[in-house]
Amino acid sequence: MRKKPPRGEEVALVAPDCYCGRLARLQTSWTESNPLRRWGKKGYGFFVWVDIEMPPRERALMAWLLRTKREFED
Question: In this structure, are strands 25-28 and 38-41 parallel, antiparallel, or unpaired?
Answer without folding.
Answer: antiparallel
